């Protein structure tokens, strides 16, 4: 309605100006009338379209339409037209010396063990065919080009082999002509890496996106390199809540775009982690979970709103499989839980599955990517992680610690050797059983083959019942007698 009203008002204004011009024309000599009409045409058509086209020079309407033909608008049409406000927003993405450099030169790059992030708070041009970013305005710093692979796992050579480089070019360079111009900054990241695995998608892309861009209040435009349609489809709700603008797919676009600024890369704070002291606005994991509730329209905020305990069991069909799953479900029901068994087909649609998880008060699963869905649980819910042999450190690091930061209760169930299928392959005295750390010393690939890919579980239902009784207690409930 606001857009229709604005267009209507603009049209009415144009009509009024046209009527006034006619009055002037008919009351003047033909020559003067033609001159006035020509001036009016220039005022209405040329001046509103005279803009900066990603450089310090103004261009006229004819040139503008050819070089910067389309101005992007979001759903509400609000961009960042004030350069000072843009500088303020982008300045918050860097710290210390990087912030000083950004203030001085308009360009700064931060590098750490996990990721590289470069920020430009002055106009840039981006060639979508080559993913070359032209930042030739920078003065006072060495004219060195930068190469950034915009994915938050820099030290992992395998992951980064799936991530295309972005070149940031500085110095005396011939600039390509703008074909599109935008009034919000570009936000460049890759959907390569380990996409397809929910843990890695949240860990290396979704949470870093929130960390980096939430403070820009949706006034940015994503450019997604290594564009992965399944990823973008799966996380459409999240992407649309971080940006009011349609995603640009470089390979399918192939044009030169001009932006008033740019951020290349994503900040990373650790496994499923947010360090609120390093985030503009001080967001925490609780803030991120609130953002998820808004994005997916999740109704249940706290388990106190639920009448009966509902347990969701993450069922794995290939590795770390519960071989006696039916017996586990029978025991869970006997404790008074309504049980939902989540198999891969149910989890494939994240939009729908987020709603299912949000209706549960307990999640149970063996260590693995499926436990990432615990992010959709209500506050105060309980995550029960079954820890296979050899995976104590990984389980605690990837899900145990983060669960507490999410506002969840946490119960850990460590399997005994007799519950692991590894005991059928190795004797009780073998280092695989007695000393998993020694296997990891042989290399992660060796340990992964044994403990992650080569292990299934037959759970001791009587012993596991104790873990679920503890979970009930954390919910303020008690187990039935017997």
UniProtKB/TrEMBL annotation:
Residue ranges occupied by any Glycosyltransferase 61 catalytic domain in the UniProt entry: 280-384
GO CC, alphabetical: Golgi membrane
Name the UniProt record assigns to this protein: Glycosyltransferase 61 catalytic domain-containing protein
Pfam families associated with the record: Glyco_transf_61 (PF04577)
Compartmental location: Golgi apparatus membrane
Record InterPro entries: Glyco_transf_61_cat (IPR049625), Glycosyltransferase_61 (IPR007657)
Alphabetized UniProt keyword annotations: Glycoprotein, Glycosyltransferase, Membrane, Transferase, Transmembrane, Transmembrane helix
Annotated GO MF terms: pentosyltransferase activity
Entry membrane topology: Single-pass type II membrane protein
Transmembrane portions of the chain: 21-41
């Amino acid at each position: 309605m606001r857009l229709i009203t604005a267009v209507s008002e603009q049209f009415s204004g144009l009509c009024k100006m046209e009527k006034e011009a006619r009055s002037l024309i008919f009351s003047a000599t033909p020559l003067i009338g033609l001159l006035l009409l020509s001036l009016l045409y220039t005022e209405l058509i040329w001046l509103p379209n005279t803009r900066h086209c990603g450089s310090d020079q103004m261009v006229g309407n004819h040139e503008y339409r050819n070089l910067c033909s389309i101005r992007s608008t979001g759903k509400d049409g609000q961009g960042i037209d004030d350069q000072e406000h843009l500088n303020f927003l982008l300045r918050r993405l860097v710290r210390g010396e990087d912030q000083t450099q950004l203030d001085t030169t308009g360009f700064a790059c931060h590098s750490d063990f996990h990721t590289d992030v470069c920020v430009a708070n002055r106009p840039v041009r981006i060639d979508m065919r080559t993913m070359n970013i032209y930042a030739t305005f920078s003065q006072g710093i060495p004219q060195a080009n930068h190469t950034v692979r915009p994915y938050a796992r820099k030290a992992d050579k395998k992951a980064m082999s799936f991530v295309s480089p972005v070149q940031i070019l500085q110095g005396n360079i011939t600039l390509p002509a703008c074909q599109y111009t935008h009034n919000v900054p570009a936000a460049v990241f890759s959907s390569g890496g380990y996409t397809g695995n929910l843990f890695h998608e949240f860990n290396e892309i979704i949470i870093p996106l929130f960390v980096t861009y939430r403070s820009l209040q949706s006034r940015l435009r994503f450019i997604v390199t290594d564009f992965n349609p399944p990823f973008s489809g799966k996380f459409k709700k999240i992407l649309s809540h971080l940006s009011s603008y349609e995603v640009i797919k470089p390979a399918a676009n192939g044009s030169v775009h001009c932006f008033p600024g740019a951020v290349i890369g994503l900040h990373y704070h650790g496994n499923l982690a947010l360090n609120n002291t390093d985030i503009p606005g001080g967001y925490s994991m609780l803030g991120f979970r609130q953002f998820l509730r808004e994005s997916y329209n999740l109704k249940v905020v706290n388990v106190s709103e639920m009448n009966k305990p509902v347990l969701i069991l993450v069922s794995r069909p290939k590795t770390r499989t519960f071989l006696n799953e039916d017996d586990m479900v029978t025991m869970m029901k006997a404790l008074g839980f309504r049980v939902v068994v989540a198999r891969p087909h149910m989890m494939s649609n994240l939009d729908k599955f987020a709603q299912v998880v949000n209706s549960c008060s307990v999640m149970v699963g063996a260590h693995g990517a499926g436990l990432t869905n615990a992010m959709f649980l209500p506050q105060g819910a309980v995550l029960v992680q079954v820890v296979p042999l050899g995976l104590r450190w990984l389980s605690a690091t990837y899900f145990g610690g983060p669960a507490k930061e999410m506002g969840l209760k946490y119960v850990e169930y460590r399997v005994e050797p007799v519950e692991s299928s590894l005991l059928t392959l190795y004797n009780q005295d073998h280092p695989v059983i007695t000393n998993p750390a020694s296997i990891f010393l042989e290399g992660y690939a060796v340990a992964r083959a044994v403990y992650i890919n080569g292990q299934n579980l037959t759970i001791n239902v009587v012993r596991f019942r104790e873990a679920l009784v503890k979970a009930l207690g954390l919910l303020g409930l008690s187990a039935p007698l017997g």
